[in-house]
Structures are given as structure tokens and as C-alpha cells.
Structure prediction request, 423 residues.
Amino acid sequence: MIEQVLIVLFSFMTMLYLSWIILYFIPRRRFTGDVRYPSLSMILPAHNEENVIEKSLLGGLNSDYPSEKEVIVVDDGSTDKTAEIVRRIMSSDGRVKLLTVSHGGKANAINTGLSQAKGEIVVVVDADSELDSKALLELVRPFSDERVGAVSGVIRARMNDNVLVWYQDLEYMMSSTWRLLCDKLDATYLLPGFTAFRRKALLDVGGFSTDTLAEDFDIGLRVKKAGYRMVMSDAVMYTQVPQDLKSLVRQRVRWSRGTIQVVKKHSDVPFNPEYGAVGFYGIPTQLYWFVHGFVALPISIYQILYGYLTYFVKYSDFVSFNVFKYFFGWISMYGMLEYSFNSFTGVYPMNAFFLLCFVSFFLGVSYNVLSITRYSRLSWRHAFVIFFSFPYSIFALIIFTFPILWELNPLAKKKALVNIWEK
Prediction:
């Protein structure tokens, strides 16, 4: 029974990965008319960002842009020195504005900044992030097409020696690549914490909504429904990602719950022809990973424990070199490579299950490598993360998948929402 379920699972994964790789090699459509750079307002919502706000603010000020630019920092009830640092920079640079509000959350802070913004283009940047020097040029370029209402960019992790950051950086590159593939289908709808908006488009939809935990997902669908095009650019931003497991769990639980909240709020979008590939490809792909988690996680855990109990514990072999080799095969690519070698050399039977497993594995690794080479250079850190990807993927699936049980439980007592961030 388990093998039949896995055959179905690997079949879906093979089709999904194959579609990604095919789309990857399809050329992008690019705007070829005259490029103009209107006035720009950059909004940095900030809550307790004293360790990063100066670098982020200076990065925005120093990022190349040929027209009028202002940077609005909205201090969302910080209890540290965030406002003090901004005031010091503001005293020597008239392009900087500081607004202070009670702690009401990211969406509320952005709306406060929007109410004071003068630019035709509004760029929303997380306050713990830093722009590439050419980021604003790349981000604003597509607005020369008057139909465009929002433009997203590429998000990378600020790298350091923390292994957890290495894994997240790969995730961000894979996510950016996937959003690029959606863009090729005219299906951009996710607008993460590095997005430019036509101010008119934001005003037309009433600004950001505070009724979900995924304001970036919600605003994308609302701008889409308002009739605007959205595209993805090559602009790059480096963000401060969670540095420990507790922070990462909080972030992914918020993402998971927010995704379900937005899908319920916009239940008219999935599989609706009116929304094209957003409804038939983008959102269904997002939702697939919840199904994948509920199927793959229990099977994986069962197989690991069953193998250990059957082939080792049963014979009183609790700790040995063979036990180490067994678990090493599970936590690394070594197990799949050994399985493939033994299957191709006739030690194991060559059957449909193996072929689907092998093809899915090969396409998945290929997509990882394509994502890395598009936005970075392959390094030993990337090799390490890919080789030992299984434990992190299981952990990430668990903290992303199971929080939806809370959102889908009609008996669960939920706070009146709630787009209030925590650090």
C-alpha cells in the first residue's frame, strides 16, 4: 500500500519538477519601450530593528535612482533605539522621514507610510534588509508599461556562518526561481517583502489588509483582481533570516496560517479561468505542498523507524557502523545514490517505483542547481545543503504543514486577527 501511495506522490512531483524545468528554459517577455523613472517613495516598516536599521536605511538611500526619492521609516511601536538611529540619519539627509505609530503590525505600518508617500512608485522593503546597488533601477523599470501595478524582486539571505542560514538562502533562491517561472505564465501574484507598487494601484485597492498573516499574498491577489498586471524583476534584496530554530518555527507557522487565511479569503481564485495561470497553476502548486506534507511526512518517519527496528533492533544491533550508515543514508543523498547504483547494476530490481523515485530525485536536484546558478555561484556551502537536504526538508515541511490544522479547525478559538509581527 505504501509503495502505491509513493508512486502517486512521485508521479506528481515528477510532473511538477518537469514543468518547472521546462518553464525555466522558456525565454522571458521583457518590456522593450522607453524606460522612465518616476518619483519614488520607499517605505520601511520597522519594529525593534536597532541592529539592522542603519544599514538598511543607508542601503536604500545609496541605491542608484535617477529621479526624486524619499525613504519613509515607519517605527511600529519599537521599544529599542530604532527611532533614535533613524533620527540621527534624518538630521543629515532630508530624504528621510520618520513616522511613529503604536504597535499595530506590518500592514498597518505600511498603510501609515502610504498615507504620507509622495512618489508615483511606492517601494516596500523589510527594515531588516539591504538593497543591491542597482535594485531600484531594476524594480522600477517594468512600470514603463502603464498596465503594470506591482513588481516583485529577488530575495536572498544575508549569509554568515550559521548553517541554518545556508538552508534558508537556498529556499529563497528556489522560491524566487519559482516566482520567475510563474511570471513567464503571466501568473505573478506573490509580492514578498521587496515589492514596488504603482501608488495608484495601492490606493485603488485600499492599501494593505490587516485581516491575514500573509499580507504579501493577499495584496497580490487584490491588485490582480483590480485589473493590474504584476511582474517579477531581477532586482535583488538581501534579508536577515531567522538565526535559530525558534524564530524559524515562528516565521513558518505564520506563513502557513497566512496562506490558508488568504486562500479562504480569496476562495473564488483557485481553478477560476478568469485568473488564468494564477488560479490553475500558481495557487494549486502552493496548496500541493500541504497535501505533500500530510502524505510524505508520516510515510518517511514510518519507513525510517521500521527499517531501523526491522534490520537492526530486531537483532540487538542498536549502535554500530551499519546503523550509522543506515541513518547517514537517510539524512543525505548517499542513500539515494547507493539505491540508484544498486538498481542500475542489478542488485535491486528495476521497477516503476525506482524509476519514478530516481527521476523525481534527479529533477529536484536539477531544479536546485538551476536556482543556485541563476542567482549565485555554486559553492561548497550549496553542495553541503543539497547533499544533506533531507533533514531540513522534513523539518520545514512539519512546521509549514501542520499549522493549517489550527486554521481549518472550526472549533479552534482564534484571536481577532492580527497582522502583528514579532521579533
User: Anything to note?
Assistant: The chain has two domains: 2-21+283-408, 40-241. Residues 2-21+283-408 form one domain.
